[in-house]
Amino acid sequence: MRTTQTERAIKTRNRRIVAYFATLSIALVSVAVYTLLDRLTTEALAVLAGAVCGVGAAIPTSLLIIAVSRQGKAEQPREPKPQLRHQQGTYPPIVVVAPGAQRHQLPGWGWRGGSGIMDPPPAERHFTVVGGDLDD
User: Fold this and answer.
1) CA atoms within 13 A on the CB side of 88
2) Is the pTM value of this prediction over 0.70?
3) ∠ CA 12-16-20 to the nearest 5 degrees?
4) For the chain, percent helix, then strand, then coil, each to nearest 5?
5) I want to staple 121 with a disulfide (CB 3.0 to 4.6 A). Which of 46, 63, 108, 131 is the partner?
6) Mapping DSSP to helix (H, G, I), strand (E, B) and coil, where does residue 118 land?
7) pLDDT value of residue 76
8) How confident is the chain (136 residues) per 10-residue block, as mean pLDDT?
9) What residues are paired with 118 via a beta bridge?
10) Which of 111, 115, 93 is CA-nearest to residue 102?
11) Distance between CA atoms of 130 and 17, rounded to whole angstroms?
12) What is the residue-wise DSSP string for 22-50?
């Protein structure tokens, strides 16, 4: 019978501690909110209210997306993974396909994909280096 009384005493003490910290937390948050509201301008309060409302609107939406995605996964039967044909440590074969030969290529001119339309010769390009030495 002593253990039950001891357990009750411990539970009562734990409840009192929790109630004390809950009351203290509420008081601290209340003081912080009052100080914040007293010092901020109306524009800053409007931005803060918008941010809080945005987060408040995003939470149910994200929970809904998570619930729907989990429901879809639960309905799909799991397929067994296919067995690998090659052993661990060996690499699969690599196949290299060489491109076709280019026809009638002149210096400075190239075929565009073999369609018969030729690229114009490259124009001379001039560059200006900003912040560099002008050693032309």
Assistant:
1) 0
2) no
3) 170
4) 55, 0, 45
5) 108
6) strand
7) 64
8) 77 93 96 89 91 95 91 68 61 69 50 55 73 61
9) 111
10) 111
11) 68
12) HHHHHHHHHHHHHHHHHHS-HHHHHHHHH
Q: Is 133 left (phi over 0), alpha (psi -120 to 50) or beta?
A: beta
**Given this model, what pLDDT does residue 124 score?**
83
Cα torsion 8, 10, 16, 19 to 10°: value is -100
Length, in residues, of the chain: 136
Taken in order 116, 122, 123, 125, is the CA torsion positive or negative? positive
The residue type at 97: V
To which residue do tokens 């004390």 refer?
20
Residue with tokens 């929790």: 18
**Residue pointed to by tokens 């879809």:** 72
Residues 18, 58: Cα–Cα separation, whole Å = 31
3-state secondary structure of 111: strand
CA atoms within 13 A on the CB side of 1: 0
